[in-house]
Amino acid sequence: MPKIIGGSLHAHRQQVRARVFEVLRTQLYERGFDAVTLAGVAAEAGLGRTAMYNHFPDKDSLLVAFVEAEAAHYVDRLREAVDAVPDPVAKLATFVRLQLRVLAEYHLPPGTALASALAPAAYRRISAHADPITEQLREILDAGRRAGRLLAEDPDILLPMITAALTSRQVVDVPPEQLDRAVEAAVRFVLRAVGATEADETTAG
């Protein structure tokens, strides 16, 4: 029987998952999704293959669990950052900045590349985590519109357009010393697209 760490079975499972996810995060960054194997993650995390399979029966289940954990943490982080800013235009700028910063750090294959790498059911589970992020953006646009700070455009049209801009890796695939400038250019682009004035941009930045 494997040694229980953390004082209880629940704590043990949480600590094992955290250790596995940290290894997976590093391997995704260094090698890319296609090169990651369940056995390789288990070995680096110090787990036997049987113990690994008890937690994650296959690579898809490992990736889905990882993304679910990352997404839950990110949604909390995003809401805390946005709620800390009172002005709706500044809220939108904060949202855009954080989305792009995370995109710059996030190394799973985006969009269709991830869809082709996973089984359809696994990809649908991962895709579902965009919903709370989209709803956060909708709330920001609605607040800005009600305050007269943003254009009264249909949010169902604006949302996919803004989301597309914030999921383009070309925006953040720049040398590290150019990332700040790229992110701020994108912030200004989105604010102009939704009708924020020049003065609002300065306040939000």
Tally the structural domains.
Answer: 2
CATH architecture of the largest domain: Orthogonal Bundle
The H-and-E topology, N to C, reads as HHHHHHHHHHHH
- How many angstroms does the end-to-end distance come to? 55 Å
What is the beta-strand fraction?
under 5%
* CATH H level, superfamily name of the largest domain: Tetracycline Repressor, domain 2
Biggest sheet features: none
Q: Could you say which structural class the secondary elements and strand pairing correspond to?
A: mainly alpha
Predict the CATH topology of the largest domain. Tetracycline Repressor, domain 2
Number of helices: 12
Envelope shape:
elongated
Helix content: over 70%
| Strand count | 0
Question: How many whole angstroms does the radius of gyration measure?
Answer: 20 Å
Keywords: DNA-binding, Transcription, Transcription regulation
InterPro entries: DNA-bd_HTH_TetR-type_CS, Homeodomain-like_sf, HTH-type_TetR-like_transc_reg, HTH_TetR, KstR2_TetR_C, Tet_transcr_reg_TetR-rel_C_sf
Pfam families: TetR_C_24, TetR_N
Protein name: TetR/AcrR family transcriptional regulator
